[in-house]
Amino acid sequence: MRPRKVPLRKCVACQEMKPKKELIRVVRTPAEEVLIDLTGKKAGRGAYLCGTVSCFRLAKKSKALDRALKQPVSPEIYDQLERDFISVEEAFLAAKDRGDDDE
Ligand SMILES: [Zn+2]
């Protein structure tokens, strides 16, 4: 096993520190849109969530994204993000299991 520095980020919902690749980034773009950013490279203020819908729902309930993005996030946006989250979750987990996304 090669020792490698794994960048850790905190999930804004459950507050756990996890490797970046296990988290889904939500970004507030300069145009003030709130989007899921699977590339992790979009410009804007980012917040990280575990790649599970349960953590997303926790964030929605506690309005964790509002705080993390320093912008009010409307219920409609949370609903839209939840749909996006569900649709990317499967692909996200499959990519994570391959475990070969070294940069
Ligand atoms: Zn979490």
UniProtKB/TrEMBL annotation:
It comes from the Bacteria. Transmembrane segments: none annotated. Pfam families: YlxR. Residues 9-83 form the YlxR domain. Gene3D superfamilies: YlxR-like (3.30.1230.10). This is Nucleic-acid-binding protein. It comes from Paenibacillus beijingensis. The lineage of its organism: Bacteria, Bacillati, Bacillota, Bacilli, Bacillales.
